[in-house]
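Entry type: protein chain
Record version: 2
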Amino acid sequence: MRRSAILISAVFALFPRSLFAEEGVWSPTNVIAQINLGCTRVYTCGPKEDVVHDGAHKVVGNGPKLVIGVCSAGDGPIDSCNDCLTTPPTDACDWHLQPK
């Protein structure tokens, strides 16, 4: 197991991180802000599925993106913003493992 961790660390040291980037998926967060009839929502980038890795590494994705959307009352009062209707960012979502 230790040999694998050393090998992973050596590979990261020799090659740029971008060589190891994998396609991910944008996920909406619950961080929304209402602006009149509009709203904003924060999306984060990460792997499509859970990734198992050792404790010496962490998953790093593209930085969070702020997306503008439209407020919807949903099941709440008609003048409220209970849902922020958005679509995921159009930018590519790439992630990689990085040493801590």
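Comment: Helices lie at 2-14.
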